[in-house]
Design goal:
This protein is an alpha+beta fold and 476 residues long. The protein has 4 domains: 2-45, MutS, DNA mismatch repair protein, domain I (3-Layer(aba) Sandwich); 48-192, no CATH class; 209-319, 2-Layer Sandwich (Dna Ligase, domain 1); 385-474, no CATH class. The chain has 13 helices and 20 strands. β15 (392-397) and β16 form a beta hairpin. α9 (174-181) packs across α10 (183-192), α11 (228-240) crosses α12 (273-285) and α12 (273-285) runs parallel beside α13. It is elongated. It starts with a strand and ends with a strand. The model has no long low-confidence stretch (mean pLDDT 87). InterPro entries: DNA/RNA_pol_sf, SulA_CellDiv_inhibitor, UmuC. Residues 3-121 form the UmuC domain. It holds the Pfam family IMS. This is DNA polymerase Y family protein.
Length: 476
């Protein structure tokens, strides 16, 4: 039995079957429990540990339905629409769940109904089981008003008004009930009667396509795992729908309930089973901690979490389309080997400051440019290699506001042969920053043909602080 402080008193938070047979139910004050039973084994309630356990069981339950929601402290809801035939029917599905959880040491009560609220009510306040559509009113009639779970104040008001069981509501009009006790009560009553329903909010992304393989005997060796059939099945589904996967997930379900999930991203819609298999093999080989089969895997699932239409590709005479596809394939292989975050690309940002004009993001991410790249389709006006922070250089100029004639960097003097500029960039005054001075940028070529990008920080004669020169970047 566990106890926790609730309503300014130490109360029973959870009790096993033996304690409940002695009249020790959750919510009972601990002092009252000690008066009823002198010797009680008590531990402090750990809500975080209970929630973590509930999450782990929900992860394990992913094998039965892709749509699962948890309702702490002790309930998991499954949307089993369209999946019962895989297990031979509703009764067989429930039997499999109860048997597997019993082997893990859990005692459970299950209920199947037409709505989530009805299943919750029959499971928590009834005898559970399968509620057939033609027996809804009969099964609901015997449930106590606590099954509405509308709060203590409304429960007390209902009991004072003579409502003890849900059958007391069946012959009464709903409008007076909503006016007296609030619309929440009638909404929950309609859900328990399976007149209306609320959709579950899945705790994990629902796969768009999936393929799974169940094993009669758990597989204990990684060498026995073959991805060919799973990849072929999944890619066959994608081709029939004209889709390609962009985000994949490979799940390994262990016999003891633990699940290992491996994610994979693709830079282009992917529906080729051979490529998909090779990418996952590379991903598995690159894991820092190899998969631990434990007592063996009894199921594997390959799913598509996100995809795009798989349209025909028209090859151009210049070969740019094929080159782009080859680059995307290379990015996919590198990301599978080293991780999605290790391969990056630059996206443009809406600012003129060079150090803020681009942002590195994973190459397979959906991040888009927030501005146009400067100099698109022309000779780059800014170098690809930038210094941050920019090193200061010593400059000699013919006129104060003119381009430099000579500058010294890293102990080497460079005579300027050609100069272009200035490109003036004002500070971003709307940001809280110490960078409040205007910059004048110059493209410089020295006498040896090396090209640099320098800027003058500040104005001569207009500001108190001295003017300084910096080297922002180097052109290739």
């Amino acid at each position: 039995m566990t106890v926790a402080k609730r309503s300014n008193a130490l109360r029973i938070a959870a009790a096993d079957a033996a304690a409940q047979r002695l009249g020790l139910h959750p919510g009972l004050a601990f002092t009252d429990a000690k008066l009823r039973v002198a010797h009680i084994e008590v531990v402090e309630h750990d809500a975080a540990a209970d929630l973590a356990l509930l999450e782990r069981i929900a992860d394990w339950g992913d094998r039965y339905s892709p749509i699962i929601a948890i309702e702490p402290p002790d309930m998991i809801l499954f949307d089993i629409t369209g999946v019962t035939h895989i297990f031979g029917g509703e009764a067989e599905l429930v039997a499999d769940i109860e048997a597997r959880l019993a082997r893990q040491g859990f005692a459970v009560r299950t209920a199947i109904a037409g709505t989530a609220r009805a299943a919750r009510a029959h499971c928590r306040f009834g005898r559970g089981g399968v509620v057939l559509p033609d027996a809804v009113s009969e099964r609901v009639a015997g449930l106590p008003v606590e099954a509405l779970e509308c709060g203590l104040d409304i429960l007390i008001a209902l009991r004072r008004a003579g409502f003890l069981y849900l059958e007391d509501f069946l012959s009464r009009p709903r409008e007076p009930l909503a006016a007296r006790f609030g619309p929440e009560l009638t909404d929950r009553l309609a859900q328990i009667l399976e007149e209306t329903d609320r959709s579950l909010t899945p705790r994990r992304p629902v796969p768009e396509f999936l393929a799974e393989q169940r094993f009669a005997d758990p597989i204990g060796l990684m060498e026995d795992i073959a991805l060919d059939s799973l990849a072929a099945d999944l890619c066959g589904q994608l081709h029939r729908q004209g889709q390609g996967g962009r985000s994949f997930e490979l799940g390994f379900y262990r016999a003891d309930g633990k699940i290992e999930r491996i994610g994979l991203l693709s830079g282009q819609p992917l529906a080729d089973p051979g490529t998909l298999r090779r990418l996952f093999e590379m991903r598995l080989d690159a894991l820092a901690d190899p998969l631990d089969p434990g007592f063996g895997f009894d199921m594997m699932r390959l799913a598509v979490l996100a995809g795009d239409p798989l349209g025909p590709v028209q090859s151009g005479l210049d070969g740019k389309v094929e080159a782009s596809r080859e680059v995307s394939a290379l990015v996919d292989r590198l990301s599978a080997r080293f991780g999605a975050g290790a391969v990056q690309r630059l996206i443009a940002r809406d600012t003129h400051l060079p150090e803020r004009a681009s942002l590195p993001v994973p190459s397979l991410s959906d991040a888009r440019d927030s501005a146009e790249w400067l100099g698109t389709g022309e000779v780059p006006r800014r170098p690809l290699f930038l210094f941050y922070p920019a090193p200061q250089v010593d400059v000699v100029a013919e006129v104060p506001d003119g381009p430099p004639r000579r500058f010294r960097w890293r102990g080497v003097s460079h005579d300027v042969a050609r100069a272009e500029g200035p490109e003036r960039i004002a500070p971003e005054w709307w940001r809280r920053t110490t960078d409040t001075r205007t910059r004048d940028y110059f493209r410089i070529e020295d006498s040896e043909g090396q090209r640099f990008w320098l800027f003058r920080y500040g104005f001569y004669g207009r500001e108190v602080e001295p003017v300084r020169w910096f080297l922002q970047g180097i052109f290739p």
